[in-house]
Amino acid sequence: MPRSRSHSTLYRLIEAGQLTRRALLVPLVERGLEPGDDALLLTLDARTALTLPTLAEATGIDGEALTGRLSRLEQKGLVVRHALEGEAVAYGLTPQGAEMRDVLGDTWDELEGALLEELSPRRRKAVRKALGRFVELLTLTRD
User: Gene3D superfamilies under this entry (predicted)?
Assistant: First the structure.
């Protein structure tokens, strides 16, 4: 009889990823934000404004979705729009947005610590490297 897939490393990786994503969403949902807002808030900065093409490349969110998301975050007082030369605009974080980014970063760090706490620095590096290779492999097969 074949062994259950639920005992496989891949299954556990998927399960851990799903549960981690759910935990990372808690501070967003508690504050009336949507999944994906964290990508923008963690990319933006209060000191440096980023243009739409830069944000799209950094977050993987396309133009229309990105513009709508930024407008919503601007209405919530988390993002500020800066006019550049011509009709170009760039976006940065308000102090409230920077505070939210810090909450998200703290949650991320807490989960990362829980994941790696039992591993030595050498093993942590090996895990990161192995996962990086796995992501690279999957990216190559998708192209």
Answer: Winged helix-like DNA-binding domain superfamily/Winged helix DNA-binding domain (1.10.10.10)
Residues in the chain: 143
Backbone phi and psi for residue 36, each to the nearest 5 degrees, phi listed first: 100, -25
Domain borders along the chain are 5-142
CATH topology for the 5-142 domain: Arc Repressor Mutant, subunit A (1.10.10)
Place of tokens 């974080």: 93
If you average pLDDT over residues 69-78, what whole number do you get? 95
For residue 102, give Cα distances in angstroms to 73, 96, 117, 134: 16, 10, 21, 29
- pTM for this predicted structure: 0.80
Contact 50, 91 (CB under 8 A): yes
